[in-house]
Write a structure and sequence with these properties.
The protein is an alpha/beta fold. The protein has two domains: about 110 residues, Rossmann fold, CATH 3.40.50.720; about 180 residues, Dihydrodipicolinate Reductase, domain 2 (2-Layer Sandwich). It has ten helices and 14 strands. β12, α9 and β13 form a beta-alpha-beta unit. The chain is globular and about 60 Å long. About 45% of the residues are buried.
């Protein structure tokens, strides 16, 4: 299988290569793709060196699958070009997420919507992915009416520049800045740009993407997204109101047995999810389960996941793995394989 990784030198692109290698994704030829200034340089993958190529060159290679993490404008321009060549594009930007003709997929939640006709598949926002993984088994059982979510999002969600800013501030150094204010010893209730309704685009992504992924426009969602000086993953405080009452023991059983979830819920042992634990893992960690005593049928929960892995790279690779398992992406049997 020929695989292109677009944006291979960025934080998410690098993580995508790591996840592809760790999960032994069946790659015959790898095409790392990056900006013109990186073309000709090499990256290491599975013990071999691969030359970075341009987008135009990658289209000409006709890869079976192209995993994009290079920003919305690149995806809008180039994803259709790959798709025209028969390539299945899995895009990590926001470019296609709310396009009514494109599927927005979290494999544990709605992989079944995918068909052979889907050539451009959208990877959801990182904060949305971990929340819907945690909520899917509960929605199936109790039916969600309303979600109130507040996020505590890692600086890695912004990119290398943000990580550099945080580390520089900790060392008392000046340098390039990703945020309008100091992030060390601070938090910013501001992720992405503000919209006319007073919410940020990140908050509205969580509102709109949740409904699309869950396939239920009746779910009411309100979000507040906050950037915190953390590396390792995003955390979320989720208050969810159901149509039907629930038993906390049953909730724990449902979550513990659901795919992609690790239940960490033992306050007596101080066991609860943290970014420090979630870092570089593919799971969604759930804990602090408790009934909201202020109104009926409502649950409080704490959800943590590595935003670069399950929130981006791993989810994209899992989509490709699902396509292979369903025969939508066909493996080609060859006697020998070689690097690009």
């Amino acid at each position: 299988m020929k695989v292109a990784v677009v944006g291979a030198t960025g934080l998410v692109g690098t993580k995508m290569l790591q996840v592809l290698e760790e999960r032994n994704f069946p790659i015959t030829k790898l095409f790392p793709v990056a900006s013109e200034r990186s073309v000709g340089k090499t990256i290491k993958f599975a013990g071999k060196r691969y030359k970075i190529i341009s987008l135009d060159a990658a289209v000409g290679k006709k890869p079976d699958v192209a995993i994009f993490s290079a920003g919305g404008s690149i995806s809008k321009e180039w994803a259709p070009r790959f798709a025209e060549k028969g390539t299945v594009v899995i895009d990590n930007s926001s470019a296609w997420r709310m396009d009514p003709d494109k599927k927005l997929v979290v494999p544990e939640v709605n992989a079944g919507v995918l068909t052979k006709k889907d050539k451009i598949i959208a990877n959801p926002n990182c904060s949305t992915i971990q929340m819907v993984v945690a909520l899917k088994p509960l929605h199936d059982k109790y039916r969600i009416r309303r979600i109130v979510v507040s996020t505590y999002q890692s600086v890695t969600g912004t990119g290398v520049k943000a990580v550099t800013q945080l580390m520089n501030e900790r060392k008392g150094k000046s340098g390039e800045r990703a945020y309008p204010y100091q992030i060390d010893l601070n938090l910013l209730p501001h992720i992405d740009v503000f919209t006319d309704n007073g919410y940020t685009k990140e908050e509205m992504k969580m509102v709109n993407e949740t409904k699309k992924i869950m396939g239920d426009d009746t779910i009411r969602v309100t979000a507040t997204t906050v950037r915190v000086p953390v590396i390792g993953g995003h955390s979320e405080s989720v208050n969810v109101e159901f149509e039907h009452d629930f038993d906390l023991g049953e909730v724990r059983t449902l979550l513990a047995s659901a795919p992609g979830i690790v239940l960490q819920d033992d306050p007596s042992a101080l066991l609860y999810p943290m970014p420090l634990v979630a870092h570089d893992k593919d799971d969604v960690f759930v804990g602090r389960l408790r009934r909201d005593e202020s109104q009926p049928n409502t649950l409080n929960m704490w959800v943590v996941s590595d935003n670069l892995r399950k929130g981006a790279a791993t989810n994209a690779v899992q989509i490709a793995e699902y396509l292979i398992s369903q025969g939508i992406l066909k493996l080609k049997l060859k006697k020998t394989t070689s690097p690009a």
